[in-house]
C-alpha cells in the first residue's frame, strides 16, 4: 500500500495512536498509518468534517462499528478501537501490509486461474464470517482487498450495513462503486449477502481479466450496464467463467451462496494448481528431439551428448563405407570396428606382417573362432608332416 507524508492539516495524534503516514483518502474520510504505545500498527480512518456534522450519519456509523465488532474471521482486518463521540469520529483496524488487489493487477497484469480461485476461496470464506455477524459489506472491490503475506484481507467496512437495510443514504444516491455494485443496490432495494456475492464476482472477473466486466464510462453509464446489460467475461479462464457468471446474475436468488462459492473455488484452485483443469493449457512438457531416424536410436543421441567412458552404451551399427555388409561386425559392444572393405571377412589374413587373429596396427586380439582354429591346426599338422617326410626322403637319397 502506497504511503504519503502527512500534510500540514493532518492530525498527528488521534486517540491513543500516533499518526505516521497517509495511506489514502476516500468518500468517507482519510486513512492514516498509526501505532500505539506498544508499537502495534493500525490503519486509522478519520471521518470527513461535513459527515461528522450529520447526525444521521453518526447514528449509522455507530451501528456499523457495532456490527464490525461482531465480525470474527481471519479474512478481515480486525477492528482495534473506535471513538464515535469525537468531534470527528474515527476507527482503527489492524494494519495489513501488502498491495491491494487493484494495484497488484494494475502493475503485474491479470492473475493466473489458480491464483484467482485461491483468492476467491479465501474471500468467500471471509464473507461467510461477515454475513454470519449480520453485516453486508456493500462495497467489495479490488481496492478494498489487500494481499497480505498471510492471505487476502477485506478492509474498509465504512459503508457496511446490517442485512436487509436499504442501499440509499439519500434519495437517488446509491452507495458503493460503479461497476461493482449489484443491481439491487442501484435500484435502492434491500441488500442481502447476495449483494456481496455480485461484487465478489465482479472482483474475480477483474483479477482474471485486468478490467471490469462492465467496462468503463461515467457513473450513470456503468450503473445502467450493471442493471440492464450482461457482463463481458472474455478473458476469464474457462474453469472460472461459469461460476463468475453465476455470481453476476441480475436476480439475487440465482446467485450462489458464499459457502458454495468457497467450496467450489477451493476445488478449482486445487485442480488449476495441479494443471488438471481444462480452463487453461496444460503445463509445457519437456521437448523431445524428433527426427526421421529409425526408432531405437536414443542411445546414439545419448552418446553424442557426451555419455562418457564407463557408462553403459549401445552404439548403433555404423553406416557402410561402400556397400552393404554381408555380416555384422564382431567384437565388444560399443567398439567402432573402423573402416574396412565392403566384402565378407575371410577365414585368415595374409600379408601386412600381422599375426593370425590380430588387428592391423597391433590392436588387441579378437575372440578366437574355434572352427578357424581347428582348420589352422589341421593345416599346420599336414604341412609339418609333409616337411618331415621331405627331409627324410632327402636324407635317404643322400645316403
TrEMBL record:
Q: Where does ATP bind?
A: 45
List the biased-composition ranges (Basic and acidic residues).
288-304
The record, for InterPro entries, names:
Kinase-like_dom_sf (IPR011009), Prot_kinase_dom (IPR000719), Protein_kinase_ATP_BS (IPR017441), Ser/Thr_kinase_AS (IPR008271)
Q: Which UniProt keywords apply?
A: ATP-binding, Kinase, Membrane, Nucleotide-binding, Serine/threonine-protein kinase, Transferase, Transmembrane, Transmembrane helix
One Pfam family, please name it.
Pkinase
Regions of compositional bias (Pro residues) in chain numbering: 314-331
Q: Which SMART domains match?
A: S_TKc (SM00220)
- Start and end residues of each Protein kinase domain: 17-265
Q: Which CDD domains match?
A: STKc_PknB_like (cd14014)
Q: Name one GO molecular function term.
A: protein serine/threonine kinase activity
Kindly list the residue ranges recorded as spanning the membrane. 377-397
Q: Where is this region: Disordered?
A: 272-368
Bias (Gly residues) ranges: 350-364
PANTHER family the UniProt entry points to: MITOGEN-ACTIVATED PROTEIN KINASE KINASE KINASE 20-RELATED, SERINE_THREONINE-PROTEIN KINASE YBDM-RELATED
Q: What is this protein called?
A: Serine/threonine protein kinase
Amino acid at each position: 500500500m502506497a504511503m504519503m507524508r502527512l500534510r500540514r492539516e493532518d492530525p498527528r495524534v488521534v486517540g491513543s495512536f500516533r499518526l505516521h503516514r497517509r495511506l489514502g483518502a476516500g468518500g468517507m474520510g482519510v486513512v492514516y498509518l498509526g501505532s500505539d504505545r506498544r508499537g502495534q500498527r493500525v490503519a486509522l480512518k478519520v471521518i470527513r468534517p461535513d459527515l461528522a456534522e450529520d447526525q444521521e450519519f453518526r447514528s449509522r456509523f455507530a451501528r456499523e462499528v457495532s456490527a464490525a465488532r461482531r465480525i470474527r474471521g481471519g479474512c478481515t482486518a480486525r477492528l482495534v478501537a473506535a471513538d464515535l463521540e469525537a468531534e470527528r469520529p474515527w476507527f482503527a483496524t489492524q494494519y495489513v501490509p501488502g498491495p491491494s488487489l487493484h494495484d497488484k493487477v494494475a502493475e503485474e497484469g491479470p492473475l493466473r486461474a489458480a491464483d484467482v480461485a485461491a483468492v476467491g476461496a479465501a474471500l468467500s470464506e471471509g464473507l461467510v464470517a461477515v454475513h454470519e455477524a449480520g453485516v453486508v459489506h456493500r462495497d467489495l472491490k479490488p481496492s478494498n482487498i489487500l494481499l497480505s503475506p498471510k492471505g487476502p484481507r477485506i478492509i474498509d467496512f465504512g459503508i457496511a450495513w446490517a442485512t436487509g437495510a436499504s442501499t440509499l443514504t439519500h434519495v437517488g444516491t446509491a452507495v458503493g462503486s460503479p461497476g461493482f455494485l449489484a443491481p439491487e443496490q442501484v435500484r435502492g432495494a434491500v441488500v442481502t449477502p447476495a449483494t456481496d456475492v455480485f461484487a465478489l464476482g465482479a472482483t474475480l472477473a477483474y483479477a482474471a481479466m485486468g478490467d471490469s466486466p462492465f467496462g468503463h464510462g461515467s457513473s450513470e453509464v456503468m450503473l445502467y450496464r450493471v442493471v440492464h446489460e450482461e457482463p463481458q467475461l472474455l478473458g476469464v479462464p474457462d474453469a472460472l467463467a461459469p461460476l463468475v457468471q453465476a455470481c453476476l446474475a441480475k436476480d439475487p436468488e440465482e446467485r450462489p451462496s458464499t459457502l458454495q462459492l468457497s467450496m467450489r473455488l477451493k476445488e478449482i484452485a486445487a485442480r488449476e494448481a495441479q494443471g488438471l483443469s481444462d480452463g487453461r493449457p496444460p503445463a509445457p512438457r519437456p521437448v523431445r528431439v524428433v527426427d526421421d531416424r529409425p526408432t531405437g536410436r536414443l542411445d546414439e543421441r545419448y552418446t553424442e551428448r557426451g555419455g562418457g567412458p564407463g557408462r553403459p552404451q549401445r552404439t548403433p551399427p555404423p553406416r557402410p563405407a561402400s556397400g552393404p555388409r554381408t555380416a555384422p561386425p564382431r567384437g565388444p559392444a560399443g567398439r567402432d570396428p573402423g573402416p574396412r572393405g565392403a566384402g565378407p571377412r575371410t577365414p585368415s589374413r595374409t600379408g601386412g606382417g600381422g599375426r593370425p587373429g590380430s588387428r592391423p596396427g597391433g590392436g588387441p586380439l579378437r575372440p578366437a573362432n574355434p572352427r578357424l582354429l581347428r582348420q589352422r591346426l589341421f593345416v599346420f599338422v599336414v604341412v609339418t608332416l609333409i616337411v618331415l617326410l621331405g627331409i627324410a626322403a632327402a636324407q635317404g637319397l643322400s645316403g
